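Note to self: user wants both folds in one dump. Writing first protein now.
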Amino acid sequence: MQEAVATRVRDGGTERLLLLEHDPVYTIGRRGTTDHLLVGLEVLRAAGASVYRVDRGGDITYHGPGQLVGYPITAFAEGADLVGYVRAIEEALRDALTSYGVASRTERGKTGVWVDLPDGQPAKIGAIGVRVSRGVTTHGFALNVSTDLAAFDRVLPCGFQHEVASLQRLGVTADVSEVGERCGRTLADRLGRDLVIDTSVEAPRDAEIPMDAPVRKALDLLSEPVPA
């Protein structure tokens, strides 16, 4: 879907923010390694998870039910400020968290959004990994709402040891779709876009997916021996 929408944007079509929840899946970015899987394959299979290499920046992370995933697919001019784009996503997530009374921050030298747990420990609540290809952004962010945080114990999330938080862990009860609506509005504000809610997106056509798109060779690494 991302590849198809990106093709449409390159052809002058409407920019999109895809908001969704994934089935349990671990994705490994371009800087990632399977060494950061901390449990055996049988444990991941028993958890009903898949493992895929993907073409975003960053290391390994988890997506699953109870987590809001957002993919902004937008036109990105040559020479535009990629760091500024990532910072806009961070600030949009922080704006949405503020609307729930949750104080958050960024950490110097690290991408994503952080909070303090009730015991004072810092914890990551929002992860970000993006890609810019042929003038269009793909991938984006993941914000933990009511995610099963035990899933993060099976990996070294983002390539380093740290606590992981969710709105639920912070004592906030929220619906993923409601959080998605708030994040959509704050991200539109931060990116200077108008937000139009549209629940229908045309299904991807094969011709819209470039022949060299990594998704054409996507393979669940649990279906075969996992290389290091």
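First done. Writing the second protein, which came from a different request thread.
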Amino acid sequence: MLSPEKQTLIYKKIKEDKYFRKEYLKHFFFRYCQYYFREYFSFWTPPALLKYYKALEEWRNVYFEWFRWCAKTTIAQMFLNYVIAYKLRRNIMWYSQTIDNAEENLTYVANSFIWDTDWGKRFVNDFGNLYYPETINRKGQKKIKRLDKFVTENDCYVRAMSLGTSPRGKNYTAPDGKFRPDLLIFDDVDTIASTQSQKKIDKNFEFMLNEVLWGTTSNTQIIFLWNTIYEDWLVPRFREHIKWDKSREVIFLPIYDDYGKIIRDRFVETDEEAMEKNKFITEWNKKYTSLQSERRRLWSISFEQNYLLKPFVQGMHIITRDMIQRFRWSEDMKFDTIQIWVDPAVSEKQGTDYFAITVVWFKWENRYTLECIALQGRDKNIKNACQIVKQLYIKWKANRVVVETVAFQQVLKTIFMNMWMATKEVKTHKDKTTRLMEKQFLFENLKVYFAQNPWCDLLVEELLSFPNVEHDDRVDSMLMALTDKWKKFFISTIW
């Protein structure tokens, strides 16, 4: 343990001496991240993540099974940046369920070398430009949109891979030698798409055993980053298979057992229950912790998407009343980004889906729902619905209309654009229940607000009853509004 004076001296040299900094941080991955990616360290780092950093630093094979949105993928991306910067791994493969997901992660890593960000500037200052896109010259660096593979200036090869593609035989020939795959990262391969049938689960498990574990060398480092969804899927099988392997670092934090009983020590359901149990406990390491506080501390835990949490049962609601935040709108409020989200339904028959329109104001990380209108019956005809959207667009001076497009509904995008409204179309690939579960953390962290008016009251009641509700179109249009705001838009000439 270094003395405070010694630590202060080291921190000073890290800050001031480029050559000392590079050599010192080579041996401390966590401190490397703190220096070059300091924007990610505005929150206290949970112990399990410190364990994750340490395992990577010691070049161990890591099996990390934890909550969604707990930064395990981000840390793996930073690790790629680290091993490439010091040329510690030469043939790297990033696996995801689909090639698109793998390419997204590779693109982020490539951009961390060149992109005009605070960490990019610090990195380039110390290591130089390690990657130049082929499509632009070296003086015109800009953000890369999508990559499936790339070779860095210091001869490290990185490739995007999909589940089922074997690493065998995919060697990289560099000027200084030939390199077999020496770093494999598997990120979220246990998904809805990969578990559609027992046959697919069996195939994926066989691939992991025969092609990954037995197709690598002793020098290959393997990192598994997975969320468990159901106990019968790929992740639990693989966890059971490697449980006696002492060479692998297993980071696994269960909360509930198969019967819904809490199995973690000193862990209870609610803040109130934890406070009651902690009344006469003075030692901090013996105090009880609540699931509610754990969710807040870890930014997000997706509801039902991880079997570590209580499973969803019929009659259970995803959003509860204590998660609903209200605000009172006034004409003095200054709006910076307002978007209108449309979930269309044009059939005029009674009992069919509503034509839902939600107006959302984005302020920092918060989403403020200003209005939510659901058109029924004859009010849903295209002409009337488009006029209402236009009226809301003018009323709130909106930046964009975002419309969900499926089949014939795609014509609405053209109509909105012809009415001089900036328009963006989106397509949803998941059911409403799953999408709301994934956004539950926004409500838990008090990032979603609803105006005090009758339109929002109806939305709130529908939200509290979901998924056990007859009509959920208001929820659907609001779900689209919970995604990140679209930053690019053309200037409308409607006003």
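Dump finished. Worth passing along: Residues 261-311 form one domain.
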